[in-house]
Specification:
single chain; 120 residues; mainly alpha; 5 helices; 0% strand; extended
Length: 120
C-alpha cells in the first residue's frame, strides 16, 4: 500500500496530529452543542438550515442593487461603478470561459461580481 494512502500515517507528522486532534475535538464540541440545543431550544434548532431559495436571493439582490442605483449620488466614482456593473452583466451573457475583473478598491468589484454570477 502506498504510504500516502495508509490511514495510520498522519499528514504533517507530530504537528499534523495536533491539528487533527483539535479538529476532531471541535467537531465533537459542535455536535454536542447542537444536540443540546435540539433538546433545550427546539424552536431555535428548527430554524437552522432554513435558507432562502436562489430565486428569493435573486429578488433580494436585484432589489438591493436597484436601491443602490436610485440612492447613489451622481459622482464620478458612482458613474464608473455603474459602468463596471453594466459591463459585468453584459459579459455574463457570453459563453462560459475565463474572465477577470481588475478594478481598484472601492470600484464595486464585489457587487458587480455577484451580478455577473447571477446572470450566468
Amino acid at each position: 500500500m502506498r504510504e500516502s494512502l495508509y490511514l495510520r500515517t498522519i499528514p504533517g507528522g507530530k504537528n499534523g496530529f495536533a491539528l487533527w486532534v483539535r479538529m476532531l475535538f471541535s467537531a465533537l464540541v459542535d455536535a454536542d452543542f447542537l444536540d443540546t440545543e435540539r433538546y433545550v431550544a427546539p424552536d431555535k434548532f428548527a430554524q437552522r438550515n432554513q435558507w432562502p431559495t436562489l430565486s428569493e436571493l435573486t429578488m433580494l439582490f436585484d432589489a438591493h442593487m436597484a436601491q443602490l442605483v436610485t440612492s447613489a449620488a451622481p459622482t464620478p466614482v458612482n458613474t464608473l461603478r455603474a459602468d463596471i456593473l453594466r459591463q459585468c452583466r453584459e459579459k455574463a451573457t457570453l459563453a462560459p470561459g475565463l474572465f477577470s475583473l481588475t478594478v481598484p478598491t472601492g470600484g464595486g468589484k464585489t457587487l458587480s461580481g455577484m451580478a455577473f454570477a447571477k446572470v450566468g
